[in-house]
Amino acid sequence: MKDALLHTPEGVRDIYYMELWRKEQVERHIEGQMRQYGFSKITTPMFEYFDIFHKERGTLPSRDMYKFVDRDGETLVLRPDITPQIARCVAKYFRQEELPLRLCYCGSVFRNYSVYQGKLKESTQIGAELINGAGAAEDAEMVALMIDCLKVSGLTKFQVEIGQADFFRALAEEAGMSEEESEELRTLIESKNIFGVEQIMSQKELSPELKQIFLKLSEQFGGIETVQHMKTITRNERAIAALERLEQVHKALVSYVKEPYVTYDL
After folding, report:
1. What is the DSSP-derived secondary structure letter of residue 73?
2. DSSP assigned state of 74
3. pLDDT mean over 211-223
4. Which residue, among 83, 70, 263, 240, has the nearest Cα to 162 in the 3D structure?
5. Which residues pair with 162 in a beta bridge?
6. What is d(CA 263, CA 177) in angstroms, rounded to the nearest whole number?
7. How many other CB atoms sit within 10 Å of the CB of residue 129?
8. Who's near 262: CB < 8 A, 6+ residues apart?
9. What angle do CA 136, 140, 144 make, to 5 degrees?
10. SS3 54
11. CB atoms within 10 A of CB 147
């Protein structure tokens, strides 16, 4: 029993000496970069009400959370993600704020992964949230910030992939797909399962042009010319608007001199 108490539970570990020093250095460099972009640090509790992280709110399944009940009978969880906490803080403290809010954070998150997944159950999450800014300029600012944070962390060779979810949604809507069909098709395209895509296409009465777009979608990644090419082969106004948004982001990224680090993936 004494020997067992010398070990940590599965999925967590001690960090010390040089590894800890390097980890803290990276955190300081990233936080410093965020401050240069005008972001203010915010800290949030280690645990929250379960409803803050409910699956419908866009986080992970309930089985992957560490849940417990307090003495008042409330179900609480160790935070699996910090972003929903930022949303709660904004709703509580900044509800009337109209100007863009720039908040950043760094802290431990806890996810009860299966031991077979080989992932740590406690990890450090560092990030930034820009609220009340919904334009292409704000999109570009966040991408530029991410690139600079990766660079100050010590990385030199990397690519940031940018997409536009509304582009695919517009095409799926034009094809008359249900939410389930749309999700299945998106998964097949992401995994480059062309045979699966063809099977779904065969079940729909689609124009030859739309069919061809779906079949070629898994190949649509690269520079801004990928986005510009796609604009020439679709007439869907909503899809075109999504592509034009990417062009606006690209234009802003050029001014940030961040273009070499960016790939567009449709």
Report:
1. S
2. -
3. 88
4. 263
5. 264
6. 28
7. 18
8. 143, 147, 159, 160, 162, 250, 253
9. 175
10. coil
11. 22
Instruction: Give per-residue pLDDT as tens, 68-102.
Output: 999 999 999 999 999 999 999 999 999 988 899 99
Percentage of the chain surpassing pLDDT 90? Answer: 68
Longest Cα–Cα distance of the chain, Å, equals 70
- Residue 37 CA to residue 102 CA, distance in Å, equals 9
pLDDT band at 178 (very low <50, low <70, confident <90, very high): confident
Q: What is the SS3 string spanning 96-122?
A: CCCCCEEEEEEEEEECCCCHHHCCCCE
What the block records as the tokens of 147 is 């690139």
What SS3 string covers 3-16? CHHHCCCCCCCCCC
Count of CB atoms situated within 10 Å of the CB of 125: 14
Gap between the Cα atoms of 241 and 79, Å rounded: 37
pTM: 0.88
Q: What are phi and psi of 29, to 5 degrees?
A: -65, -45
| Cβ contacts of 212 within 8 Å, gap of 6 or more | 233
Torsion of CA 158, 159, 160, 166, to 10 degrees: -160
Per-residue pLDDT reduced to its tens digit, 95-124 = 988 899 999 999 999 999 887 778 899 999
In angstroms, the CA 234 to CA 246 distance is: 15
Q: Assess contact for 133 and 100: CB atoms under 8 A.
A: yes
CB proximity list for 238: less than 8 A, separation 6 or greater: 166, 169, 170, 173
